[in-house]
Protein: Flavin prenyltransferase UbiX
Organism: Vreelandella maris
Amino acid sequence: MNSANPSPQRLIIGISGASGAVYGLRLLELLRDTPIETHLVVSKSALITLTHETGLSWSQLKPLAKVCYSNQDIGAAIASGSFKTMGMLIAPCSVRSMSEIASGVTSTLLTRAADVILKEHRRLVLMVRETPLHRNHLRTMTELAELGAIIAPPVPAFYAKPASLNEMVDHTLGRVLDLFDIELGVVKRWGEKSDGLPNLDGAEPGSHSLD
């Protein structure tokens, strides 16, 4: 191991066409001023959703990432397992993208990059945004989990008592980034005070039986 030249902290960010484009947008904003090198790939449908839900265009999204790729560029660096990364996070992940990744028959750079992450046994986190779920959706999620992917739907944590939608989004993304050991200070952690120290003032919330 060459400790003098450690591998760069690269994280692939995928945004697919499901509702919830704010998750991908905010993720890039949170990581922009960190040492994490973000590599962004966005599906065609995601650009439509992005504009509809946030009013932003591709030209406004691009500067938030360190490196951007066309979703049709199957020769991009992130399409190769030899390109070292921490893993990939798709926020949000549509059912179509999820299904393509599970099948291994990938037609875009976004799904090809995810397939590469799986074959290299790196961390793949899918913020699947769909409800309700039918049996085939659940079967596909199970297949992906068996392959090593982490299914992390963007479910709000009401115990954190978010005062705004922005706080809710940040907390959700902070919990997902925990899976990559990335700490940005946006998570209100159970049993901890705001300074990150354990809550020692009496019993912890939720410690009393309701039976």
